[in-house]
What we know:
Layout: H1 5-20, E1 23-27, H2 47-57, E2 62-67, E3 69-71, E4 84-85, E5 90-96, E6 113-116, H3 157-160, H4 164-178, E7 188-193, E8 200-202, E9 205-207, E10 226-233, E11 236-238, E12 241-243, E13 251-255, E14 258-260, E15 263-265, E16 271-276, E17 280-283, E18 286-288, E19 293-297, E20 301-304, E21 307-309, E22 316-318, E23 322-325, E24 328-330, E25 333-334, E26 340-349, E27 352-354, E28 357-358, E29 365-373, E30 376-378, E31 381-382, E32 396-406, E33 409-411, E34 417-419, E35 423-426, E36 429-431
Parallel strand pairs: 1-2, 2-5, 3-6, 4-7, 5-8, 6-9, 7-10, 8-11, 9-12, 10-13, 11-14, 12-15, 13-16, 14-17, 15-18, 16-19, 17-20, 18-21, 19-22, 20-23, 21-24, 22-26, 23-26, 24-27, 25-28, 26-29, 27-30, 28-31, 29-32, 30-33, 32-34, 32-35, 33-36
Amino acid sequence: MRSIMPTIIAMLLVSASGARAQRIIYVNDDAVGTQTGTSWTDSYSDLQDALDDARDVGSCPCEVWIAAGTYKPDRGTGDRLLLFDMISGVGVYGGFAGWETRREQRIPGANEVVLSGDLLDDDDWELEPTSGCCFPSTKNGCEDFTCRDAVVNRWSKCEREWSFICANIAKEICCDLCVPTFCDNSFGLVRALDTDTTAVLEGVTMTRAHARAAPEDIPEDFIGGGPLSGRDSDIEVTGCVVRENIWGGAGFLRGSPSVTDTLFQHNRVGTALAQTLSDLEVSGCRFIENEGVGLDADGDMVVRDCLFVRNASGGLIMEDVASAIGCTFIGNRAISGAGITARGVNTIADCLFLGNRAGNSAAGLDINSGLVINSIFVGNIAQGEDFPSSAGTGGIRGGPGGVTIVNCVLYRNARGVSLTGGGQIVNSIFWANEN
């Protein structure tokens, strides 16, 4: 035994060395070297060149390391349809200062890598939209369609119905009025098509994509819009920031992706993160002050340890067999289900609902069927100007599928619980709820 131990140790050391020797492609927008991506000195200055290297040259699995700076997908052409395409076997990592030899040397929160759709560097995010035609307040009408007068009244349909033609009218006529300087922004930023779990995006900021007012020549088979999109993708997104994107929401993923420790903030209209048809895992994420819904998914989903604060159209919408575990919902607003709207057979566990407000129906949780356990509801109100105080339920509204409530506390809500389809309430506390 003693004679073979050195051999075993040597083999382990070689194996570990091989794991550390994975090819690295370097990116730095200030690079002045040979632009070969082989070192920090000779970094690529364009992230697209690094992705081409990984895709075309091969020698992957590999990693793309990006130094602090701003990177745009259009290669300087102004093409709004060019995106950064993720690749299986390739991890894309931001947050480097430009000297590191190991990923672990990065400082979280420092050295911001910005993937930007502001192709002309002319965005004014603080500028308020000048017409409601591009920002309808409801799905059934074009609020304040002020652009209609410019075309001899022939777009009156837009006053009655927010339809496909209405969206086109808003795109063609109103874009400059509604969002000056945003109409030339990238239609999307990062896209993952048919990738597996070895496609990794970590430590980048995605901002200023404009997934509306698409170019007229957009191909019929084009996929991708908003800062983060995917189809049949199991991409892993970790430690990113998705902020200040306009229309279409911030991310739309199809497949079985995972999103971890990522901030979605100040995205306008649509949904900060949406998923459909497959499984989604979201953990440790924050959805803060988005003008649409924080998270909307119609496939199976697990949302764990996430924070939803002051989202204008609700915090979380769930379909199918989905769960929210250990999440917090504070100050979200919506017509109904300001904290959570749960339309399938759902489980809500160890969650806090504080100060959410709805126009009617349910402010904290609107759930069709399932289990609510170990959760706290405080100060949630379902009351609007056109609704009497008893019109809605502040805490939990249970739907026709039947809801079981176990070990919950409901305090100072405008109406604690209503169960329209029956159910059970076990070992729970109701205290100082109104009506």
